Amino acid sequence: MATRTGTVAFFEIVRAKDGVNPRMEHANWQAPLMEIENRPVADRVLTHTQHSYIGQSVHTSNRFNLLVGRVGTSELQTVDLDLGRIEEMRLEGNKGTIDTTTVCFLDYGNIIGVLQGKPGSPRASSIQRWLNGCNVASEEIALWPVIGQNVWEKLEKAEAVHSFEFSYRPSPAIPPPDGEGLASFVRLSSERYPDHRISLKLEVPKKNGPGPVARFRAQRRLQGDIHSLMSELGYLEEPSGIDRAQANITLIDEDGEVTDEPLDFIKHHITVKCRIEVGSNYPRPRYESAVAAILQVARDRERDLRAAVSA
Predict the structure, then answer these.
(1) Predicted confidence (pLDDT) per residue in 148-185, tens digit
(2) Torsion (CA) 154, 304, 63, 144 in degrees, nearest 10
(3) More confident residue, 139 or 90
(4) Rounded CA gap, 173 and 72, in Å?
(5) What was the pLDDT predicted at 200?
(6) Tens digit of pLDDT for each residue in 46-69?
(7) pLDDT tens by residue, 4-13
(8) Residue by residue, what is the 3-state secondary structure of the chain?
(9) Share above pLDDT 90 across residues of the chain, in percent, rounded to a whole number
(10) Which distant-in-sequence residues (6+ apart) come within 8 Å of 169 by Cβ?
């Protein structure tokens, strides 16, 4: 039986427009997934920046799961290995190609496990956009990477954010994030320097810099941009090419003690490499292998996942 290697990344579903209390009570996501199964095609398609995404609810492993696919627009070719001939792929009827990502909704903490079929398959940002655009939840939601050791909480409670270092290699298969601030820099630099390793360091000077009001404004702007960028990027490991994402912050504890601390987003994002059974001789649909892999990883890391979202 052939296998391929993939990476399961975990995300928490939170309120998109509640900066004070974004975390939600755990919802029964099986109900909307069941409803998606009976929707007409038009109600499961979302178009964004010239790309069309379609979602489908599938039932396997005693639960409903979600497939989100980006409809392909490129021309595909096949090869006859006996004759050595390369030919155009021709599909009958109104059919096309699609790159899919498998999404499993866990039974606690509003956590989802996400596994891309290939590097060009929808990322967390596209899945979030599809969930909102197709009104799967009762309110607008966001997907936050499940990051251990309370990194999100520390970023929110930081008295000051002094610097942020970010390094990555642009990938043509993965569209850069939307948004302003740091997201704009990532998008423009990816287009301008697609073959480079790009490093960025932003620092609010502590000495010989702006006055206290300007320094506070700069720190708060950097704090918000870091949160937005890290949430939007979704996958923090391969194949996104991000190898460094670290902020330096100041925290004040309950006793008033001040400490400086680094926040390493890549180190604490809960992602797990796994093997997925594939191949033409495999008797089950491909998504069943993906669901089985996600759920196995979730069982192995359940304690860490529950702790990360306080479930």
Answers:
(1) 767 878 888 888 899 999 888 776 656 666 667 787 88
(2) 20
(3) 139
(4) 12
(5) 87
(6) 998 788 999 999 999 999 999 999
(7) 888 899 999 9
(8) CEEEEEEEEEEEEEECCCCCCCECCCCCCHHHHHHHHCCCHHHHEEEECCEEEEEEEEEECCEEEEEEEEECCCCCEEEECCCCEEEECCCCCCCCCEEEEEEEECCCCCEEEEEECCCCCCCHHHHHHHHHHCCCCCCCEEEEECECCCHHHHHHHCCEEEEEEEEECCCCCCCCCCCCCHHHHHHHHHHHCCCCCEEEEEECCCCCCCCHHHHHHHHHHHHHHHHHHHHHHCCCCCCCCEEEEEEEEEEECCCCCEEEEEEEHHHHECEEEEEEEECCCCCCCHHHHHHHHHHHHHHHCHHHHHHHHCC
(9) 32
(10) 196, 197, 198, 241, 243
Q: How far apart are CA 32 and CA 104, in angstroms?
A: 13
> Is the separation of the CB atoms in 139 and 301 below 8 Å?
no
- Residue located via tokens 């520390």: 154
Q: Residue 107 above 50 pLDDT?
A: yes
The whole-model pTM stands at 0.73
Tokens of 135: 């009104």
